[in-house]
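Question (not urgent): is this output format expected?
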Amino acid sequence: MDASLQFEIISETFIKPSSPTPPSLRYHKLSLFDQGISPYVLIRVAFFYPNIKGTRWLANEISQLLKSSLSKTLAQYYPFAGRLMKNGYMIDCNDMGAQFTEGRINCRVSEIRKQLSSSSEKMEDLIFARSLFSGPALANHHSLVFVQLSSFNCGGIVLSVSINHRIADASSVSTFMNDWAAIARQTSDIPSPHLHGASLFPPVDGQQFPKPSPPKLNQGKHVKRMLAFHASKIGELKAVALNSGVENPTRFEVVSALLYSCFISAASKANSGSHIRQSIFGHPVNFRQIIVPPLPQNSVGNFFTYFLTSVDNNAEVKLPELINKIREGKTKVCKECTENINAITSKLEASHSAPLTAAIETYNSDFYACSSWCRFPFYGVDFGWGTPSLVYPATTSGLNMLILIDMEDGNGIYAHVKLKDSELDVSVLEENDVLLAYASLDA
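Got this back:
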């Protein structure tokens, strides 16, 4: 990416709720599932709106509308305007507000988008806000929500949000953004998010859990790529699975299974074919609509569990076999959620006493996390000037990470691949003929 590109700050401020949080709601407890999330991880998502210049909107009008509507939204999402308390398991709803940074990038939105597939980490430094403060994330001045509005020479904008994962999962972020947009459009429906996680899944004494550690400065760089799986190619993948006996393969199953098989192949080739470590694939599952009785879709917090798929890296794994492994794992965890949600909470409590990362190191395994944001209504986020042409997800997690999200047409999938440390693994991955038969680096 052009090294001369910079984000020129116009203003930095904190947006406070439009009405004060009642004293009775001052301290918001986090749920058991929230407790399981590191406070140092952010969920980040950017919305590209390249065609505003042809509308009636002026730059200052956009800024004022976003700020005023965010203030009204935070009155409903009052924990989002607060700060994590020192124990990290409760929010002080003190109305300190969300950080809002506004600035310009001297290029066209399309130029940034072209860099997504190969220079995404540098691009993220431009379009995602950084904290106005230094210091640990648990400090009481640290915002839980960061917003950045970037304006471009073409008249388009990119609006990015970064939300502390301890207070929200991807579904919650989607709900928050759509409610914010609805308030900006002045719809008649006033959002009423369900902030009931702690009453459903009460937190436990924080002293029972290991204190989360901030990310290490020397943990190494990540290499990131954005792969495009268009609807026609996904159809071809499904046909391959069907011809091999897989019944009704889904988009998620065929894309994630293909990428996992490519990760295994790349890891082996990068180590001259001698790579015999086990691969473990972790898959989060949104259980809002699975448990009995189901939870409202606008339940805000972390409402997901996970299942694991494991494969020996020295084994040749065919696509249908991996699809079936993924399907079996998801079917099992969905059955657990339906029949006995307490089993899920017990598993979560056990994971605190024996963290997954420690288990991975013990078994000398490679770990990849796959999070599917498909079908979350991110492309419905319309503040009054139309829906986004691209929704770009990111995370600050230190894991090897794969995020799947819809294309604008709702049928294709973008796969955001983040691999730790090794350029070699990525270069081998990009030379995989099987992968390149279905995916492109064209953003």
